[in-house]
Specification:
about 80 residues, mainly alpha, transmembrane helix, membrane
Length: about 80
């Protein structure tokens, strides 16, 4: 029962980590709130580890490093086109 609670909390932090990216990716409006994806991902990893759900651990690690991944892909894309 406790594991389901931790899984749900981890899933909420995963979704929050994705939601903070929406203004930047969809509206093309850069906001410093995207840096919260690292915090939400780290908290999600902790709760997913406590629930022993390794799929959520991997998903939250991806969210935690998504800032660097998206910025790297963006710089690479604009270096090719510009």
């Amino acid at each position: 029962m406790i594991n389901h609670k931790y899984m749900n909390i981890s899933a909420v932090f995963f979704v929050l980590g994705i939601v903070v990216w929406l203004p930047n990716l969809i509206l093309d409006f850069g906001t410093p709130l995207t840096l919260l994806s690292m915090v939400f991902g780290a908290i999600g990893v902790i709760f997913a580890g406590m629930a022993r759900n390794w799929l959520l651990v991997v998903a939250n690690v991806f969210v935690m490093f998504s800032f660097f991944l998206v910025m790297g892909f963006g710089y690479y894309y604009f270096s090719l086109t510009g």
